[in-house]
UniProtKB/TrEMBL annotation:
Domain of life per record: Bacteria
Annotated source species: Sutterella megalosphaeroides
Protein's name according to its UniProt entry: Thioredoxin-like fold domain-containing protein
InterPro entries, per the entry: Thioredoxin-like_fold (IPR012336), Thioredoxin-like_sf (IPR036249), THIRX-like_proc (IPR005243)
Pfam families in alphabetical order: Thioredoxin_3 (PF13192)
Residues in Thioredoxin-like fold domain copies: 1-81
Length: 105
């Protein structure tokens, strides 16, 4: 499993990365996740554009965007990595891609 936390280097993005990293480390230590889960910080704007990420921080698991525009909590992270929830695009921060923010585009 590869988890990427996309951000521009701001404090909110750094907090999101640390939360994901520490949560995954705890789940691996407790045996809830197998060793070898990769958590990566990505600041490449072109990679964000390719994935359609319009607001940061954003969390991507195995190439699938699961959250944008906010810092996820530990329960969400646990659900995502255990396969217990779908992509969270409906709850993502409003942005215009337009993936349903209501702008009318």
């Amino acid at each position: 499993m590869k988890i990427q936390v996309f951000g521009t280097g701001c404090s909110k993005c750094a907090m999101a990365f640390e939360r994901v990293r520490s949560c995954v480390e705890g789940l691996v230590a407790s045996g809830e996740l197998p060793p070898g889960v990769e958590v990566e910080k990505v600041e490449d704007v072109m990679a964000m554009i390719r994935l359609g990420i319009m607001s940061t921080p954003a969390v991507v698991i195995d190439g699938r965007v699961v959250a944008t525009g906010r810092i996820p909590d530990a329960d969400e992270i646990r659900a995502w990595v255990s396969g217990g929830t779908d992509s969270e695009t409906a709850n993502a921060a409003p942005s215009c891609g337009c993936g349903g923010c209501g702008c009318g585009r």
